[in-house]
C-alpha cells in the first residue's frame, strides 16, 4: 500500500478563540509573562495566580496597564481546585518550577476537560506553544513539533524578512470591505454571496498587498461605489493610491542597477587602460 | 494610560496534540476531506461520520489508505449523541451543509467541553483553522482572524518562497541530536542541561539550515564524538558536508554578476563606438 511519506508526529495548528473567556495563568516568572502577552491579544479575561514577591516586571506592567482585563490573585496555588473555582476557567496555563504542583493542576484539568498547558512538561499538555509573529489581524505560528525552539526562531527570522510589514494593514482593509459588502449585498451563499466572493477575488488578484493596505475610509467607499456597484475593479491609481516605488526601487537599485553601473565603469576603464598600453 | 496598540481581536495560536486521541469528523464534502488531511498528521484515530453516497473522493482515498487510523461510519448523524458515544471523542469537527444539525452537535460539545469546530459557523467554534505549511516536523499556520482566506494564501505564498525547503530536514536532525545528547549527558537542567543547551546553540549559530539538513547517521555520530565530546563545534566541511553552492550561486548569478557583465559589455562597446566617432 502506497503510504504518503509526510504523515505522523505532527500537531493540529489552530487559532483558539478566547474572547470573553476566562484564562488562568499560574506562575510569576518569564514564561508566565510570555503567556500573559500571548493571551492578552485574544480579549480573554486573565487571572494571574502568583505571589507578588518576585513577580516578573513585565507581568507587573501588564497587570497595571490592563486592570479590567487582568486579575492578580496574590498567593500561591494551594492544591485546592474547588476553592480556586478551577472549573470556571476555559483554559489553564502553568509555568511553575514546582513540577509536582504543575502535574496536580494538569491532572485536575484533564479530568474535567479544561484545556491545559504546563510549560516544560510536554506529556501533560493538550497543546504546545510555538514561535509567533503578529501584525494586526495577521498571526503566524511556527512549530517544530518538539524539536527545539532555536530553529523555529531561525525560520521566524526568514519569514519576517520575507514580509513587507504591510500585510496586516491589507488584511484589515479587506476584512472591512467584506463587512461593508455583506451589508450592501446580504445573504450567506446564493447569488449575492457568489458575486461578493468573485469581486473580492478579483480585487485581491489585481491589487497588491501594499496598495490594499493604503485604503482609507474615503477610498474604500469610492472603491465600492465606482467598482463594486459597477461590477468592476478600478486600478489603485484611479483612487489616488500610488504603487509603492520604494518597495521595489531600492532592492532593484542594489541588486541590478549598481552592479551594471560598476560593470560599465570597469568596462570603460579597461578600454582606456588598454588604449594606453 | 498608555495602551499598546496591537492588543485585541486576536487568537491564541497553538499546536494541539492529538496522538492516540479520538477525533470525530462529521461530513463528506471537500472541507471534511481537508479536516481529515489536517488531522491525519497528528496520529489521532479518526472517525468519519457520513453516508458513503456522495463521499468526497479524497476522503475515500484516505479511508482506503489508512484503514487502522480511520473508521468510516456509513450513516448520517441522527441527533443522538449518546448513541454515537459523542462523549468518547477528544475533538469534533463538523463540515455539513445542514446548519441546524451542526449547531446541535456544537451545542452538545460545548456543554460537555469537547473542543469543537463547525465549518462556516464561527460563533460556534472553540477554534478556527488557517492556512497551513508543512515540511516534516516544521508546521506553520497563517491566520487572518476572520478577515478572509485570500490574503492568508498570499501571505502563505510569500512564506513558501522565502523557505529553501530544507528547513524540515534541518529541524529533524537537530531534534535527533538533542535526543542523543540527552542520553550522553542526561538530566533536566543542571550542569548537563546547560552544557547541552550551550553546545546546541553554538551549532545552530555556526551551521546554516542547509548544512544541518545534510547530517546523516554517520556524520551525526562523528559530529558528537569529535565535537560535543571535545566541547567544540567542528565546521561542516570537517564532516564532509559541503555548503550548498547552488543555494547562493544562481541567485547571485542572476542578480549581480549578469548585470555587471552586461554593464561591462556596454561600457566597452560605448568606448569603442566613441573612438570611431
TrEMBL record, chains A, B:
<feature type="domain" description="Siroheme biosynthesis protein Met8 C-terminal">
    <location>
        <begin position="166"/>
        <end position="234"/>
    </location>
</feature>
<dbReference type="GO" id="GO:0004325">
    <property type="term" value="F:ferrochelatase activity"/>
</dbReference>
<dbReference type="GO" id="GO:0019354">
    <property type="term" value="P:siroheme biosynthetic process"/>
</dbReference>
<feature type="transmembrane region" description="Helical">
    <location>
        <begin position="249"/>
        <end position="274"/>
    </location>
</feature>
<dbReference type="InterPro" id="IPR028161">
    <property type="entry name" value="Met8-like"/>
</dbReference>
<dbReference type="Pfam" id="PF14824">
    <property type="entry name" value="Sirohm_synth_M"/>
</dbReference>
<dbReference type="Pfam" id="PF13241">
    <property type="entry name" value="NAD_binding_7"/>
</dbReference>
<keyword id="KW-1133">Transmembrane helix</keyword>
<dbReference type="InterPro" id="IPR036291">
    <property type="entry name" value="NAD(P)-bd_dom_sf"/>
</dbReference>
<keyword id="KW-0812">Transmembrane</keyword>
<keyword id="KW-0560">Oxidoreductase</keyword>
<feature type="domain" description="Siroheme synthase central">
    <location>
        <begin position="135"/>
        <end position="161"/>
    </location>
</feature>
<keyword id="KW-0472">Membrane</keyword>
<protein>
    <recommendedName>
        <fullName>precorrin-2 dehydrogenase</fullName>
        <ecNumber>1.3.1.76</ecNumber>
    </recommendedName>
</protein>
<dbReference type="Pfam" id="PF14823">
    <property type="entry name" value="Sirohm_synth_C"/>
</dbReference>
<dbReference type="InterPro" id="IPR028281">
    <property type="entry name" value="Sirohaem_synthase_central"/>
</dbReference>
<dbReference type="InterPro" id="IPR006367">
    <property type="entry name" value="Sirohaem_synthase_N"/>
</dbReference>
<dbReference type="GO" id="GO:0043115">
    <property type="term" value="F:precorrin-2 dehydrogenase activity"/>
</dbReference>
<keyword id="KW-0520">NAD</keyword>
<keyword id="KW-0627">Porphyrin biosynthesis</keyword>
<dbReference type="InterPro" id="IPR028162">
    <property type="entry name" value="Met8_C"/>
</dbReference>
<comment type="pathway">
    <text>Porphyrin-containing compound metabolism; siroheme biosynthesis; sirohydrochlorin from precorrin-2: step 1/1.</text>
</comment>
Amino acid at each position: 500500500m502506497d503510504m504518503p511519506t509526510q504523515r505522523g508526529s505532527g500537531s493540529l495548528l489552530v487559532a483558539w478563540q478566547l474572547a470573553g473567556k476566562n484564562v488562568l495563568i499560574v506562575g510569576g516568572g518569564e514564561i508566565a509573562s510570555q503567556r500573559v502577552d500571548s493571551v492578552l491579544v485574544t480579549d480573554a479575561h486573565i487571572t494571574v495566580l502568583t505571589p507578588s514577591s518576585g513577580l516578573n516586571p513585565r507581568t507587573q506592567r501588564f497587570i497595571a496597564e490592563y486592570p479590567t482585563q487582568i486579575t492578580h490573585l496574590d498567593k500561591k496555588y494551594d492544591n485546592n481546585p474547588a476553592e480556586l473555582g478551577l472549573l470556571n476557567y476555559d483554559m489553564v496555563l502553568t509555568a511553575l518550577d514546582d513540577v509536582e504542583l504543575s502535574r496536580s493542576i494538569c491532572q485536575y484539568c484533564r479530568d474535567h476537560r479544561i484545556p491545559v498547558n504546563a510549560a516544560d512538561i510536554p506529556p501533560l499538555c493538550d497543546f504546545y506553544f510555538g514561535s509567533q509573529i503578529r501584525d494586526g489581524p495577521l498571526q503566524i505560528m511556527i512549530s517544530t513539533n518538539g524539536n527545539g525552539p532555536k530553529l523555529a526562531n531561525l525560520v521566524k527570522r526568514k519569514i519576517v524578512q520575507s514580509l513587507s510589514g504591510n500585510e496586516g494593514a491589507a488584511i484589515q482593509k479587506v476584512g472591512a470591505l467584506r463587512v461593508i459588502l455583506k451589508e450592501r449585498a446580504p445573504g450567506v451563499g446564493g447569488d449575492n454571496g457568489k458575486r461578493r466572493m468573485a469581486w473580492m477575488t478579483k480585487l485581491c488578484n489585481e491589487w497588491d498587498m501594499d496598495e490594499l493596505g493604503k485604503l482609507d475610509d474615503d477610498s474604500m467607499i469610492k472603491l465600492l461605489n465606482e467598482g463594486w456597484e459597477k461590477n468592476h475593479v478600478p486600478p489603485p491609481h484611479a483612487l489616488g493610491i500610488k504603487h509603492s516605488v520604494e518597495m521595489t526601487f531600492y532592492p532593484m537599485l542594489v541588486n541590478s542597477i549598481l552592479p551594471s553601473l560598476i560593470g560599465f565603469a570597469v568596462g570603460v576603464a579597461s578600454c582606456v587602460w588598454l588604449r594606453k598600453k
